[in-house]
Amino acid sequence: GAGVSQTPSNKVTEKGKYVELRCDPISGHTALYWYRQSLGQGPEFLIYFQGTGAADDSGLPNDRFFAVRPEGSVSTLKIQRTERGDSAVYLCASSQSGRDADTQYFGPGTRLTVL
Amino acid sequence: AQKVTQAQTEISVVEKEDVTLDCVYETRDTTYYLFWYKQPPSGELVFLIRRNSFDEQNEISGRYSWNFQKSTSSFNFTITASQVVDSAVYFCALVDSNYQLIWGAGTKLIIKP
Question: Among A43, A84, B25, B105, which has the minimal tally of Cβ within 10 Å of its Cβ?
Answer without folding.
Answer: A84
